[in-house]
């Protein structure tokens, strides 16, 4: 019996890693789906520690996918800061805009994340917010912006950052909210996508750093294997889901994610409400 229990616990952690990893980069709200998953199957994340680790796995995948952009921004940004080379100014300003865009979610997350998570975790509320995400995706389904990285302003960064802070609510997709805001501001699809996921890096990294104390208080000796497998599953699922989503964005097929959010949102309201 004990061996069977340990096996199913192993399956549970790998499944949660794959589930969170797949839903993180695509605009259907990983937090909302995890909330619904727990309601339907009675699964428990045992606090925020596992969720933080799974998000860290997604962060690693994002860093792998955007590694060339990150290296380019770092090299050219430092070059402009040190030598004031005009050709590298756009990369330097892009970094500045990422910092500006991080501030709203960082501040609001510190102040209200726990309250928001508890207040909006009811399945019917998650269903409503998923439908709102679907409506937003439907609105931008045919938009083709013209502004690249060089055309961004601090106001754009602040608006996209505010959109990211709205995604603290379960059911509001982080990637969806930021991409919707960016495209409504006239950004090109590839620029909106890049800004959205590079904006995810400091938020996820900051959350991980702030949670290290809580993670170390847990019984690491007993949990590290399960945690490691869950994180590896999250990395793998996020990596392939993000590449898939980038391909879908290029083809302009966001409407299918809108349909999905409508359907899952309606099910959550009618059946789970």
From TrEMBL:
Disulfide bond recorded as keyword: no
Topology in the lipid bilayer: Multi-pass membrane protein
Known catalytic reactions: di-trans,octa-cis-undecaprenyl diphosphate + H2O = di-trans,octa-cis-undecaprenyl phosphate + phosphate + H(+)
InterPro entries (alphabetical): UppP
EC number of this enzyme: 3.6.1.27
Matching Pfam families: BacA
Keywords on record: Antibiotic resistance, Cell membrane, Cell shape, Cell wall biogenesis/degradation, Hydrolase, Membrane, Peptidoglycan synthesis, Transmembrane, Transmembrane helix
Subcellular location: Cell membrane
Membrane-crossing residue ranges in chain numbering: 7-28, 48-66, 92-112, 124-140, 192-212, 224-242, 254-272
Residues spanning the signal sequence: none
PANTHER family: UNDECAPRENYL-DIPHOSPHATASE
Family per similarity comment: Belongs to the UppP family.
More about this protein: Bacitracin is thought to be involved in the inhibition of peptidoglycan synthesis by sequestering undecaprenyl diphosphate, thereby reducing the pool of lipid carrier available.
Function in brief: Catalyzes the dephosphorylation of undecaprenyl diphosphate (UPP). Confers resistance to bacitracin.
Name this protein carries in UniProt: Undecaprenyl-diphosphatase
């Amino acid at each position: 019996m004990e061996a069977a229990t340990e096996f199913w616990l192993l399956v549970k952690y790998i499944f949660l890693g794959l589930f969170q990893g797949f839903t993180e980069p695509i605009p259907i709200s990983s937090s909302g789906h995890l909330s619904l998953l727990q309601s339907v199957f009675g699964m428990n994340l045992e606090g925020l520690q596992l969720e933080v680790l799974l998000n860290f796995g997604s962060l690693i995948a994002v860093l792998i996918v955007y590694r060339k952009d990150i290296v380019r921004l770092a090299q050219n940004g430092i070059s402009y800061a040190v030598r004031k080379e005009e050709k590298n100014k756009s990369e330097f300003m892009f970094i500045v805009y990422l910092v500006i865009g991080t501030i709203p979610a960082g501040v609001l997350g510190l102040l209200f994340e726990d309250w928001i998570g508890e207040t909006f975790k009811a399945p019917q509320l998650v269903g409503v917010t998923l439908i709102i995400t679907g409506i937003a995706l439907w609105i931008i389904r045919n938009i083709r912006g013209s502004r690249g990285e060089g055309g961004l302003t601090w106001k754009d960064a602040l608006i996209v950052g505010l959109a990211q802070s709205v995604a603290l609510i379960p059911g509001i997709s982080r990637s969806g909210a930021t991409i919707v805001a960016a495209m409504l501001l006239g950004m090109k699809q590839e620029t909106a996508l890049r800004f959205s996921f590079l904006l995810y890096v400091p938020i996820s990294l900051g959350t991980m750093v702030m949670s290290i104390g809580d993670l170390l208080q847990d019984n690491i000796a007993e949990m590290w294997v399960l945690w490691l497998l869950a994180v590896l599953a999250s990395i793998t699922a996020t990596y392939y889901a993000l590449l898939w989503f980038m391909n879908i964005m290029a083809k302009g097929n966001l409407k299918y994610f809108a349909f999905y959010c409508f359907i899952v949102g309606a099910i959550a309201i009618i059946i789970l409400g």
